[in-house]
């Protein structure tokens, strides 16, 4: 890879650009304990819930724990919990700002492809003053089929108007990796969690943090 071939980078959000998984865990965990007497550790969250949509996690709860719940109920409970929490407390992952600045200076186009909603993007990336780095945002509202379906990345590729060989995706979970790869994109995997490293063992590029990304494509 070189700057002459890579013209755009599509970033995932949660766990890739922002260190949000503990935030989500700390909001889901009390709900699971209170409503269903399910106790999970942060390691359980990373292994079983992180990187998945609400619909998939509700299905997982039904199948694994045999509880009666639905998407609407869990949506209302989790969103109420998020509203009582401070999403601006979510920190950036290491090296995010310097990587975005480096790509921008080199004329690489940058966009976001996430299963989170636009309100989350605006709140967290807005707080860190990063919104202007992104050409566009593919959020949950914009697709019918979220990750691991390829639809989010196919839409992003269409909006970029570039050949797929000129685009790379950056993801931290097998869910996102599957979405990007199924859309025909090279996907760089970036994670520090051993569970995800094992799931992403077949990735062509697997790094612990984003600092390796500019060296790879620039």
UniProtKB/TrEMBL annotation:
It holds the Pfam family HAD_2. Keywords: Hydrolase. The keyword Cell division does not apply. GO terms for molecular function: sugar-phosphatase activity. Signal peptide: none annotated. It comes from the Bacteria. PANTHER family: FRUCTOSE-1-PHOSPHATE PHOSPHATASE (PTHR43481), GLYCEROL-1-PHOSPHATE PHOSPHOHYDROLASE 1-RELATED (PTHR43481:SF4). NCBIfam families: HAD-SF-IA-v1, HAD-SF-IA-v3. This is HAD superfamily hydrolase (TIGR01509 family)/HAD superfamily hydrolase (TIGR01549 family).
